[in-house]
## 1
Amino acid sequence: MVATANNEATKQSPARSLARSLARPAQYAAFPVALLVVWQVCAQLGFVRRNVLPAPTDVAIVWFDLITGATDAATRYSGTWLNHAAASIWRVFAGFAWGVALGILAGLLIGLSRIMERVLDPTIQVLRNVPVTAWVPLSLVFFGIGNAPAVFLIGLGAFFPAAVNTTHGVRQINTTLVKAARMMGANERELLVRVILPAALPSIMTGVRLSMGIAWVLVVVAEILAVRSGLGYLLNDAYLFYRNDVVIAAMLSIGLLGFISDRLVVLVRDYLLEWNRLETFSGQN
Amino acid sequence: MARISLRHVGKTFASRHGNVTALADINLDIADQEFITIVGASGCGKSTLLNLLAGFETATSGEVTFDDAAIDGPGPDRGVVFQQTALFPWLSVEDNIAFGLRLRANRHRGAPHVIVERMLARTGLAPFRLRRPAELSGGMRQRAAIASVLAINPSTLLMDEPFGALDALTRSVMQDFLLEIWEEERKTALLVTHDIDEAIYLADRTVLMTAHPGRVQEIIRVDLPRPRRYDMRSAPRFIALRDHVTRVIRDEAIRGAAEVAA
């Protein structure tokens, strides 16, 4: 098989091999580029006023100024992007860290012990169904305006997917592996560290990934309602001043940072779970 | 002196449909270095019996002793080879073999890397040492599982249909592999199977069990010479033994089916 593939590659004309090496980037770019083109055309045809639906080029210009402060296209927001982005990133990771840590711990306890399941699980299952946004009023009353309520809300949101998926991960472990480890003389700590944690890791990482997604949703909610900095705050403030170009630039910034955070989680996951790819379906080319 | 001894052993499971007696009045002594096979139709409690010896389950009546002490949970003195290969999918072959040796309980057994090398050489898995279980064939996987159990050097091997999931050819190769290791190490071995040929070919004595409840029907001494060789399967003595075991097990299976129908 390998030999045939090599032969084909050497036989190919330069033009064909170039087309082939461009196929992949083209597959990635096609849809977003089409979306931008349609958007640009719609904005330019003037179906809606330009300040209601700014064109991608308008957004790009204002975004550039938001970041660099070079052109003053974003006026009062000029050059503020880095501070807002840093504030949001910090909140996301602070909330994510405590929520995920506590979620994994709770998930392990519930998964490992029937007693802990009876003690903790009903409460978690009820609270899980309260939308985290419903916690906003109380968290403002308790923590006031500032970082605290934001980090609290984000952590709360990140907690549940981590907890539920960790429990699931522990409960679907193959009992033969646990039996084998016990037979070889593993103590409780060794069983946890060498068998249960690695075996539950695929599920745990699924939870962690969902937690990261929720964290970026909640940072915007929190920043609209509870703080005066961050991309969510920028977005809401620009909305009040009728700067839809800044609104869209802030939206795209959140999307992009959320995407990068997700890629980071996936990178860690793929590093830790390289073995799992051998056992699971990975799509067709 | 018996390494393993069962006296009037019974095991009853509570289920939704009332109590189910899996084993009743089992009496069996297994000598040191003896190779015992247990054969019977499915549902005769042969795996339950192995689980009692492994320490995964406890008898509801009677006495099970290992080296004259009551069995209290699983332990590295009784290595278990499972039907569903117990390899850790995130570990390579060599790390799987080293798994038991890296546990606190087995620190005294020697340097993992030295023992792992020996096991890799003995099982022919050295070229595949860095592979993950998912990258191995069924036979290689079971070899690795056996190697990981042998690595902790248990005095007794308990095997629950270890070759049940393999194709016929691989299975017979694995039987010879197992015998070769047993000849060298002379461990006490107990192997549960529903394959009559396998039960006879491997055993010093083979225990025939009947179902509902699981009882010892007969214990047959397999008086074929050691070391066993593949072509012994066509020897008249082997065929006579096989016919006998087949008749007993078939009669039992038919009687069991009739009872269930009645």
Note: Residues 41 and 253 of chain B are 6 Å apart (CA to CA).
## 2
Amino acid sequence: MPAEAFFQHLLNGLTLGGMYALIAIGYTLVYGIIELINFAHGEIFTFGAFLGLLILSTLASTPIGSTAPALVPAFLVSMLVTAGLGVTVERVAYRPLSRASRLALLISALGASVFLMNAMMLTFGRDSKPFPVYLAAPIYERGDLVVRQIDVFLMVLTLALCILLDQFVRKTRLGRAMRSVAQDREAAQMCGVSVSATIAVTFALGSALAAAAGILNGLYYGVVRFDMGFLAGMKAFTAAVLGGIGNIRGAMLGGIVLGVSESLIPALLSAPPFSVPEIFDYKDAVAFLILIAVLIIRPSGLLGEELPEKA
Amino acid sequence: MTPPGLAASRWAVWVLPQIAMVWLVAFLVTPEVQSVRRAADLLPILNLAVLIGGAVWAVRFFLKSDLCRHMMESQDVTPRILAQSVFLAAAVLPVVLCVLEKYYWIHVLAISLIYVLLAISLNIVVGLSGLLVLGFSAFYGIGAYVAAILTTGAGSSPHLIWALLPAAAGLAAGFGLLLGAPTLRLRGDYLAIVTMGFGEIVRIILTNWEGLTRGPISISGVAPFHLAGWSFNRPFSAGPIRLDGDTQYYFLLLLTVAFFVLITHRLSHSRIGRAWVAFREDELAARCYGIDVTRYKLLAFAVAASGAGIAGVYFASLQGFVDPTSFTFLESVLILSMVVLGGMGSLPGCAAAAVILQVLPEKLQMLREYRMLIFGALMIVFMCIRPEGLIPSRRRLRRIREVPVP
């Protein structure tokens, strides 16, 4: 494979991985704090993308409509509203079950996911919706390698959001509350931490990041579709497990590793000396095989520690 | 001398399922609700509302009556007699529909029997053992594709399809073990996501391995069941009654479902079933009592997968063709919602929910679009308000109701 093509696939993998990382953080935050695979998270990501699309198409008639500054309100509003949706899902589908069995909670989460996916299908239609184009100009070109503005924007924004979240969880009062509830809910409560408020903040943060990932995804691929959250959500969950579930930096690392391997592995296998172009049909299966492999070989993930199963 | 209440309950156990059957026929012959545009469209809605409302009211009335209490207490009303009575009603049902020439509904009922089979299989893992499996349609798809690929091969005997029932069951169980062996040792909720991933892998392979599965084009011409020169999809006339192919499949499926109900019932009341319930309730305690939890989990997984494999063979043969779109994630969710709404761990509940969730949307065509939306909402509502489901299993009910108040 020529070097330019290799770097192009690496670049694709890094941008893809950035998006996975943003979604994976939501899974890992929620899992860390209430030990639930939030199946609805993929749909929250899709909702964020659709909301961004809606805002951008509303702004299209204004002077800033088709320029890059229009992205600022799109990101801010979408992240804010989607955070609200995340909190609502928690309140409606998870909080009433906080004392129920794990199975009941999982089924409720699945119900929330199916409900949101179908609600979006009925609202926005079954077909892919085109996403307006921003920042498409190339800034560096050499043979097969084309770096567009959006690639840089995506990586910078992802990095910034990750650092912000990491500092929030590590340095602020609320972040400390989140970590304490994740560690021991009762003890945190006894120290005066409001558990339900902390859980709500966790959902809000995860959902806001998912919304940002949703808009980035729309900008990057140029389309959004009601069911795109299913696949993206599963892959992001894989990334979270890969990094060690419950570990925020692990989720970021897992996202990048997954994105790069999903982009590079099929590219390497389809080029000589392997030359199996059919591998691209099975690109989506790569993530799941990685998931199964991680669970067999190192269930605690790259950066995770062993977690005992809580009753 | 038997008290009069108990004597009545002996009769009631035979009569009530037949009444339910007559109600189902009445329900099926009422016109469908297509859309609501004209005032005349309201009539079928009214009809359906009266039928459904009447049934709900009658069931509530029955549950509060002395008769119900007597039936619960009577030694004569065993699950076996109840099952026999229900199967009698289920066997008469298609004959009545044949006489009324409602052949389409027999097809719908045959398909719902396939879902009954799927639901009671999934019930073993989700209901009895408490393991959430989200890729169940993968095993179903494996069964269907085994039937489709092997019967459409050149020179295959028409009787081959019978041999494929155990073969598909075995293959599906094998895949179940392959998937379960590494993952069942892990935290319970990883299993959900791994099976979801497995379902997706199977779907991707079915769609893309065109040399084997012909991909999205679908495989058509799957062989019908065939016995000594008689093909099950050939119509059959006996005097005034004409039994079409779907009816014969219906009876074949009914026998299979009866067989599976028997097996599941026996399993769940055996040492194995008690082990399943034990680790569902408390895995640590079960381990302390010396239950080899991983082995029993694998067993539950394999039994459930084999049921799905068999259901797949029937599905392929009944439809005559298979394509990958029948085995998506939403299909798994549909089967799971049957188990959840019927009552996890409850055989009659799962069976009833499977029939209801298949037949009701056929009647309410205008709600078809909203079907999954409603199921999603119902899954949340049931988990929050009525986790024991429509027809709770006695064992689970006992646990839910008898938890001492702290």
Note: DSSP finds eleven helices and four strands in chain A.
## 3
Amino acid sequence: MTIEKFSYDNRMVRNFAIATIVWGIVGMLVGLIASLQIPFPGLNIGEYLTFGRVRPVHTNAIIFAFVGNGMFMGVYYSLQRLCKARMYSDLLSKLHFWGWQLIIVAAAATLITGHTTGKEYAELEWPIDILIAVVWVIFGINMFGTIFKRRERHLYVGIWFYIATVVTVAVLHIVNSIEIPVSILKSYPVYAGVQDALVQWWYGHNAVAFFLTTPYLGLMYYFVPKAANRPIYSYRLSIIHFWALIFLYIWAGPHHLLYTSLPDWAQSLGVVFSIMLLAPSWGGMINGLLTLRGAWDKVREDVVLKFMVVAITAYGMATFEGPMLSLKSVNAISHFTDWTIAHVHIGGLGWNGMLTFGILYWLIPRIFQTKLFSKKLASFHFWIATLGILFYAIPMYWAGFTQVLMWKEFTPEGVLRYPNFLETVTQIVPMYKLRSLGGAMYLSGALVMVYNLVKTMKMGTLLADEPTEAAALEPMTVEPAGHWHRWIERRPVQFLLLTTVMILIGGLVEMIPTFLIKSNIPTIASVKPYTPLELQGRDLYIREGCYTCHSQMIRPFRYETERYGEYSKAGEFIYDHPFQWGSKRTGPDLQREGGKYPNVWHYHHMMDPRTMSPGSIMPPYEFLTENDLDTSSTPAKIRAMITLGVPYPKGYDQIANQDLMKQAEEITANLKKDGAGIKSTKELIALIAYLQRLGTDIKNEPASTPPVTN
Amino acid sequence: MFRDHLENITGISIFPMFSLIVFFLFFTFLLVYLYKADKNELIEISKLPLNQPDSPEKS
């Protein structure tokens, strides 16, 4: 047996750690700003700092920049040590690190300037999508290269989670990002309406599962035993945890679309698998917490363990709440309200945030060969972060319940008690303020951590290449007797393939029927493609992130149809590339907005929402009356739509702008008649055209045939 | 309504059956394996994160 000398790469771990800290602060700060923009609409400044653009920056920064870099930090540290090998290639590590930071900067710049696909957590436009795929593959190669040259035959359970993450995120990202470019920063997804919704939430849910959960579970399986200095409670349980989790998670996406126009069978499938998910999730939580059995006295003293215990507990709470929210009756209450916001922040602030902090406090002193600058400050961080989570979540639960109860309340005469949506918003504004306080507490704790860790780094010196040694892995001449799982555990490629098969089954079973339906579903004859002006207006709706506060999905409940009108039908969305159903109603649903108000109402409402709706918290969109609509893009957009199967007449792309101008002139004339002077070339005209079209098509259905339902 | 559309897809009935069988077999295999697995080896693997020294935190 030969002993080989080599070194671990700690420099990359340090780089990812610094990126985690920096982007974490940025992401939380942007989140705080976004949260303040709701109760204080005056903070929506100009064109670039409106809530609709700031909110995607927050979500993308937290998910892909903060948690992303945190994941890479932990993987680069633990993978090397579990494989007893240096990362496969220093060059790939470097490309991975800088490529990822480039993606983050490009993402922030494009989102704030309104370049978005309009699909939540997949907002980035196609050139960045390609860059993400490339960098992700680099990460995958670097990881598998390390696994191949490992000096430890067994692959520890943490590595399985990393492998599942690499494979699944790649699949999800590619499938959900298939889009037709219109220009360098504009594209349309190939899917429309119901199908787009299914693909998006298959992606969206599994972004949570395989970006925020599985890699962090891998980290939990490494760093919790490390910090507690004892092995994981049950390795058997961790095997069940892993396979059951990745098998079940991939089916659960449709629970984001309960009571929508998604086929009922797909909804039910999503519900069933979501409920089953409780078992492996709690298995994992129990496994993490019980690792500390007999060591609870340590938790009292060791701040790292404190962070980890809260993180695992938050994981348990969020994964209990998730299946509960997937029950149709509970979802009917929670969906579109702040309950969802509370739920994701238990996961984000609690699970991802606290585990990241714990790992940072454990890891930074070690790679800098020193001790933590101040345990007191770390302890302060722990308490203010924990309190911050409570101050964040409780007001959001309260707001969610309050609002939904107001939405649903009828008077004894059988009419809505709060017919004006705004009443249900102003009622919960104090809760929004309290939530911001919770967020500010959490952020201030993170700032204390920055100070503490910078001081720690300055006290020590980075051990950039940590010397170590291990026995070379002898080639196995005789296969030792064992079970199939032993066999698979030693073979990363086969493991990769099995994992891929597992995650593909769920996705395929859900998607194939939904896509085949296209040729079977009777389309609603009166639903027609958008006019060129409406299409341009729709792209403005997407650009401004209107979907972050407004849904376009009326569920078949009496309190919804009373308030908004006829419930939404699958056939109404067939030309919607992308779908804009939304997931949150900070403002009212807009599916049947068309014709509800005169053009001039929209004009004044966009100039300053508070003139038309006193107390409204919507940002002002005055700049839409100043910006000229870019009509040069119309032909390319029409051509892209024709490619996607939208039935515009042949050669329409060349004459579309004539129709566009004609419709714009009509709206301008109508506005002028009502005393609102605006040029027909302005962006606002297109947006009004789109809003006035919304949901009106089925009203043109001949009265004799009942509207087609799903 | 959707059941009608689904019924028009050739061979659609195989989907739920296929899912159920895969699901059942998968978890049966997993449980059987775990039942038969060698406990000592599992304990050994679970010690993997711990059996090499990290540069210890100075105190």
Note: Chain B has three helices and no strands.
## 4
Amino acid sequence: MSTTPITAPLAQVNRLRSLVDFYLTTMRTAVQQQFQYRAATYMYLVGMVAEPVIYLVVWSTIADQSGGTVGGLTAGEFAAYYIVWTLVRTMNIVFTPYGWEWRIREGELSGQLLRPLHPIHYDLAWFAGGKVPWVLFYLPIAVVLTLVFNPTFDVRPLEVAVFGVAVWGAYLIRTFNQTALGLICFWTTRVGALFQLYIVLELLLSGRLVPLTLFPEWVQTIAWFLPFRWTFYFPIQTLVGDLTNAELLGGLAMQVFWTVVGIGVFSLVWRYAIRRYTAVGN
Amino acid sequence: MLGHVPSKRERDFLRRISLVMGNRNQLQWGLPALDSFELNRSIYQIPRPDFVALRDELIALLEIGDLVRKPVRQLSLGERMKVEIVGSLLHRPQVLFLDEPTIGLDVTMQKRIREFVALYRQRHEATVMLTSHYMADVEALCERVIVIHHGKILFDGDLAALADTVAAWKTIAVVLENGAGDLSTYGDVIHRDGDLVTFRVPKAETARVTARLLAEQDVLDLNVEDPPIEDVIELVFAREAVE
């Protein structure tokens, strides 16, 4: 064994190149891990699809019984909405506050805090990598849903391109929101109740439960000014809606805004939260 | 530590330390350890040639070439600890924190881990901070011992000094031809089992008492020992409780 330390001073290492290397390696590891448990992953995905399929069946039935439309949406448009919904949901899965609760309560955070990278990088990279198998597994489900429910799609190339960016915007916003929420565990140990409140707000104001156009105007206005809409409704609308180019780019700008706000809130909470950490556990 | 304030968790500091927790798994559970090693390479930005060379060297030293190719979930506790330690050393930390590294391991594996850590420390001139309830770990690895109780440092010094400070006595166990007589003039008789008698004597008196025993008694066997480290530590805490 040679005795020269490998770890050169950080200034000599290109920080960006290091991060790219870390992200790619972690994403590759996440893909391998997901394929190790592919049966479990697939069952999880099938279970997750149950939620939009129930919404889809309910709204399609209501549309059929209401002369073909509800709130201006046809059964085919509902089908398109919830099929894209499923893809968006697959892409915006993030490390939840329950994960942070476990990390802090069990002392699992100790090891991560002693690494020269913030744990948020690991979470971002890991869940980004996990999307590769999830989306691959989702594709056959999407084919089945398309054959069964006959969705109505009219998509422009720009909309596809914006969708490709918007799903990652949704991922970032949800990551930073839920991480900031998870950090509350540094004070409270448990965060389940608050997280459930967050999920209720998300269900109602993001377009997750129903398309936002079915809500009264004032609810839609409130939703516009909150982050939730930009994590579900906007990415879905890029493909199934009829947004102008200005609305598409404006939506991306709103995602950037909420990502920056999320990073700011998360960074602020982290600064105070980390001082409260005491390594405990089994 | 290393010119940094640990609580600030600066990157340059964190790149030069490592932590191994005996009751924690820091490896990817479903994948072979080699994949976790690769992840560590990217975290610590270890140049690939250095990484490959040291990884292969450590694997050879611990003879775990076949283990690192199995999913971690299939490894026993001892096997997992070996690969955990290799993973934690790949960036050649100058300070290695070991938190109960031998907990739950059989004696053979405990010995192997201790030997390896001692070898690493010697070759890399690294500092090893060991936290352990196993006194065998402490005796095998520690030159300097810090006893902490309720956040208060009760002792800071080398192991021999700890025994001298707290338990300045030795035990002399003798097997006599006839152990029936009064032997209290040699020291405190702390145990008697037929002709086997154990005395506790002040360290300074040990040589003189031993010589007297050999001269005055028919000694069949004689053994002089320092007090067990467990007893010494117990005395430190007991003394703290009284104070």
Note: The interface with chain B takes residues 1, 3-7, 9-10, 13, 18, 21-22, 24-26, 29, 32-33, 36-37, 107-108, 110-111, 113-117, 281-282 of chain A (CB under 8 Å).
